[in-house]
Amino acid sequence: MAARLNNRTAQQSRDHIKTSLLIKKVQNHVLDGEEMTPTQIRAAEILLNKTLPNLKQSDDSLLVEGELGIEHFVVNFADGSEPAE
């Protein structure tokens, strides 16, 4: 068998598989009542925080320099609220 040219890709694939298994385990716990100890839940939380982006509120500011050539754009908020004037 030929040697892998990119071991990093293989490691990334393994990491994604482990992440998806953790997500499934936590989903089964929450949705289907599968038993997990508090230690298992905390361990899953720690590992998921290392592999998934945190969805806490972030600074959504944007600095645009130069001319974009855009005269009109629409902003839609996920919660359905209207932008402040």
Task: List low-pLDDT spans.
Answer: none
Helical content stands at 40-55%
Euclidean distance between termini CA atoms: 64 Å
> How much of the residues is beta strand, in percent?
under 5%
H and E string: HH
Instruction: Sketch the major β-sheet.
Output: none
Let me know the average pLDDT: 76
Radius of gyration: 21 Å
Q: Total number of β-strand segments?
A: 0
Secondary-structure-derived class? mainly alpha
Number of helices: 2
Shape: flat
Walkthrough of the structure:
There is one protein chain. Helix 1 packs across helix 2 (38-51). The mean pLDDT is 76. The protein is flat. It starts with 6 loop residues before the first helix and ends in a 34-residue tail after the last helix. With 85 residues, the chain is mainly α. It has two helices and no strands. The longest helix is centred in the N-terminal third of the chain and has 26 residues, at 7-32. The protein has helices spanning 7-32, 38-51. The chain has a domain at 7-51. The relative contact order is 0.08.
